[in-house]
Amino acid sequence: MENQQKVKNLIDLRVQAKLGGGEKRIASQHAKGKFTARERIQRLLDEGSFEELDMFVTHRCYNFGLENEKYLGDGVVIGHGTIDGRSVYVFAQDFTIFGGSLSETMALKICKVMDMAMKMGAPIIGINDSGGARIQEGVTALAGYAEIFERNILASGVIPQISAIFGPCAGGAVYSPALTDFVLMTEQNSYMFVTGPKVVKSVTGEEITTDELGGADVHARKSGVAHFRVADEETGLIKIRELISYLPQNNLEDAPVEECLDPIDRMEDALNEIVPDNPNSPYDMKVVIKGIADNGDFLEVHKDYARNIIVGFARFNGVSTGIVANQPNFLAGILDCDSSRKAARFVRFCDAFNIPILTLVDVPGFLPGSAQEYGGIIIHGAKLMFAFGEATVPKVTVTLRKSYGGAHDVMSSKQLRGDFNYAWPTAEIAVMGAAGAIEVLEGRALSKMTDESTKSAYITEKVDEYKEKFANPYQAASYGYIDDIIEPRNTRFRVIRAFQALQTKKVVNPLKKHSNIPL
Ligand code: HXC
């Protein structure tokens, strides 16, 4: 072959590779409202930044006639590019080639790009759209998955790992996304489950649709497997770009600092009035978050799961910051099994990646009852306590209203190494709420009272006395557990100043192989 012909041959092969499983299958992918693997990568990365690798890899399977059916690239597109000029590594399964099913060679490609991401200290983003293990290959596909899982595990806490689910993700394949830091699902075409509806029916008799079993709604609201649920792929890819903007490249770097045009001393007058006089009335903690963050921007994570706690990313004076906040608007912001787990995982992510944490507290306590106790609230609450207590990143806590009992300790209290613990004058920091406390303290006296009106007057008097003494931040401040009581409208400024002071913070935990967080 002449050299000119060789070049032409290469160009032809490239065109062929880019067609994946062929035009018919691409059309079928589009008909489902889905992009192809390369279209997804193109939309995810900065224009023209993608460098594809391993385009000429083909499978090595000789079973079931597969030796006669080969496609360049073998079902996954891998490479690197940039998001806002910062390097990221990507793999995207190509459903047009054997349904994106995972072969030995596809696994090798994915592992290659994961290894490169680790070597270069850059985030890895995986786009999943696959029929699972390539059935014709048998055990080599299984081994391939395990190779990927091991890499997910070793990369955890070293580089950010993000998974987008844009199609099927079933069987053991779900465990790679589950091992990553963030999972994003689309409402229409994505699903994740360990066993599909047919197997469920044959084993348990339960009749359930694919969507009911593992659609985006289920995983965003009920299981918590999905951190983000988006309407379509386009929105999802934009969301990933936004998420990346809050993250560092790896655990040895800080997240990028954005120029902040929002005045750091901006007063948010509305906050002076946001806490209702009635302690049982709710208010929306998101108004507080948006009121104090740069430009009111807040990227909420796990928005629909365990809504009694809010977690997500904001910026303060341009610095990426993780926010953990009780939400009085939902279940009074109480801590339960799900909210404890949700917040614990987020705190650990922030700590692993040098992202400071702001904790906004309004928590009446832990949710009582057999359902919670049987569900393991002790162990789940311990997770959150462990996560806060172990974290060495800068930690600023602001108590807005309630901070009762064990939940007070858990929510980044001074004794869990909170660096700056502030309170609003509306804070109530005590062992328990006034009504419950009086029932315990005055039980004997009350049992002797026969006249109901005398009893009620006595309770009112004692409750008032208890509130006067404890339903405020001053007792905690008198012990130095609260560093200062701040005017609510000045919260943004005080928080920014606190984080500025903490820029040089250095705390090292005792050396160990690893901790034993109560899982
Ligand atoms: C090989 C596969 C495949 C697979 C799909 N295809 N899944 N080829 N191995 N696992 C091929 C199809 O033969 C078809 O080829 C093309 O991909 C598109 O598939 P369709 O069925 O036409 O698409 P659709 O109707 O959209 O259905 C998608 C699907 C279905 C729901 C994913 O294909 C399906 O149920 N696949 C099998 C899923 C499965 O059981 N996987 C193994 C799970 S066990 P043509 O040539 O017609 O285009 C597992 C273990 C992992 O994954 C363990 C890890 C630890």
Structure description:
The chain has 519 residues and is of the alpha/beta class. The protein has helices at residues 3-18, 23-31, 37-44, 104-120, 139-155, 175-179, 197-204, 210-214, 216-223, 233-245, 285-292, 337-352, 370-375, 377-390, 405-410, 434-441, 443-447, 452-470, 474-478, 491-501, and strands at 51-53, 76-83, 86-93, 124-128, 161-165, 168-170, 182-186, 191-193, 228-230, 299-301, 309-316, 319-326, 357-363, 395-404, 420-423, 428-430, 484-485. Strands 10, 11, 12, 13, 14, 15, 16 and 17 form an eight-stranded mixed sheet that branches. The protein has a seven-stranded mixed sheet with strand order 1-2-3-4-5-7-9, with helices on both faces. Strands 6-8 form a two-stranded parallel sheet. Helix 4 (104-120) runs parallel beside helix 5, helix 12 packs parallel to helix 14 (377-390) and helix 16 (434-441) packs across helix 18 (452-470). The model has no long low-confidence stretch (mean pLDDT 96). Hexanoyl-coenzyme A binds at residues 25, 98-99, 101, 131-135, 142, 145, 168, 170-173.
Task: Describe the protein's topology.
Layout: H1 3-18, H2 23-31, H3 37-44, E1 51-53, E2 76-83, E3 86-93, H4 104-120, E4 124-128, H5 139-155, E5 161-165, E6 168-170, H6 175-179, E7 182-186, E8 191-193, H7 197-204, H8 210-214, H9 216-223, E9 228-230, H10 233-245, H11 285-292, E10 299-301, E11 309-316, E12 319-326, H12 337-352, E13 357-363, H13 370-375, H14 377-390, E14 395-404, H15 405-410, E15 420-423, E16 428-430, H16 434-441, H17 443-447, H18 452-470, H19 474-478, E17 484-485, H20 491-501
Parallel strand pairs: 3-4, 4-5, 5-7, 6-8, 7-9, 12-13, 13-14, 14-15, 14-16, 15-17
Antiparallel strand pairs: 1-2, 2-3, 10-11, 11-12
Helix pairs in contact: 4-5, 12-14, 16-18
This protein binds hexanoyl-coenzyme A (HXC).
Hexanoyl-coenzyme A (HXC) binds next to helix 5 and strand 6.
